[in-house]
Amino acid sequence: MASVSMSVDEVPDKELLARHVKGDPHAFSALVNRHRDRMWAVAMRTLGDPEEAADALQDACLSAFRAAARFRGDAAVTTWLHRIVVNACLDRVRRKSVRPATPMGDDATFDAVAPKMPDPTDAHGVSLDVQSALAQLPFEQRAALVLVDMMGYSVDDAAQVMQVPPGTIKSRCARGRARLAPLLAHHRNRQGRKNVGGVEGGGMPR
Predict the structure, then answer these.
(1) What mean pLDDT is reported for the chain?
(2) Whole-prediction pTM
(3) Which residue of 93, 133, 138, 151 sits 20 to 30 Å from the alpha carbon of 99, by its own alpha carbon?
(4) Percentage helix, strand, coil, to 5, in the chain?
């Protein structure tokens, strides 16, 4: 019985990477296209600046292309790719002081970063505030929060991405959340005033 060939979409990540190493000219593009959206999300949420994120993603893709032969297979390919993206972001932060000045375009960001705080109505303004607050964190804390609170990584998986013990990720997240809380407290207070009387005290914010 003739075997049915797999479409590129059905080929596992590790096999695509192996095909690339063996010289398949299309395998790496297929792999990157499959994961580009989440790679971009990691870069954008970590750096906040679209141009810097685009450059970091380009650097990461080039690094992954060249380093594919060194992939040992002891982690998921996505973990390996995101590790390279995080490293590319860190390289750009080291080379140039990146001060994010644009929103992440994610209305759910506030919930992701501070899940115990109520969700305010001005999501766009909150996104701006969260991006500004994140920019004030040390890179390691910011990256840990992006992976765990925004991208949904488990602590163990985030530890693999950042190549540190799980306890370090927990510590970085805890410290990052503690530093974010006072920076975002005005949103929590606003929502609290709304909840007391059904409307926000003092009228519309100015």
Answers:
(1) 78
(2) 0.71
(3) 151
(4) 70, 0, 30
